Give the backbone structure.
Amino acid sequence: MEKVRIGFIGVGGIAEYHLKTLQQIEDAVITAVCDMNGDRAREIAETFGAETYETVEELLDAGVIDALYICTPPFAREGIEEAAAARGIHLLSEKPIGLEMEAVRRKDQMIRESGIINSSGYCLRYLDTVQKAKEYLADKQIDMVLAYRIGGMPEVSWWRKMDLSGGQLVEQSTHQMDLIRYLAGEFDYVQANYEQRHIQRLHPEATVYDVGIVSFGLRSGALGTISNTSLSRHMGRGDVEFFGRDFYVSISGLTLRIVDDNQDVTITSEMDFYLEQNRAFVAAVKSGQQDLVLGDFSEAAATLEATLAANESAVAKKTIYLAAE
């Protein structure tokens, strides 16, 4: 194919990041958009030179796309991935990819059986700093992991409902959970405690927590915690720290720090990770090389499973073990 023709289902804020970076990729062209907000769809279509479609089926059947970006909220994903896979349309599905594991596993199986190129929204994997950390940690025994996602709350009503967003760990802190999996290995068990401390003063209808602590064990034997809050107005943090007897590695936003007996090095990335993610996906579609993608749908499913297990733990007040593959 001369250029990869790309369509979008859902053209909210996260989609706009993708759209702007795709414009910088010579091998990509944006051809189609669909959104339940018709005015927004028309605005985006005009800005990026695409056609608008009223329904998912109309877009998929129009014959104008090779690849599809799904950027709808997690509660609005029913049947979209399956429909794309059935038509042989390559797929990037933004995180989180769903809210119910049985449905996500069915999607994953169909995507794998279809043979389409598939990717997910775990853009931080594409940072050069993350790749340096992965290389450094490859032969290290990680003993403890500390992670944080601290900040404010998105101003969209669906985010405040657990049954629509899954809460902060599923919807935001999933990036830190994914980095833990990517750099330190699979989760063995999780134990979570969630509380509503302030949110109902502002939004009495809210069912999400605004403070959460998750303790976990990895299959390697390492232990860790991830601390989450969406009520912090004056401080933000999105870090993962790895501790071993002879080293310390920290990923804090775009900054990597590595400390051991021979070095204390700090590197700050200048990468646009959305651009790198989209460049890799377009190249994979054009060449047919799935291995250019650093986080496929199956990887996203494994990260989702860990976050949903934490939600289950918080409700059940018990440790939840994740099944070994």
About this structure: The first helix runs from residue 13 to 22. The radius of gyration is 20 Å. The chain has twelve helices and 15 strands.
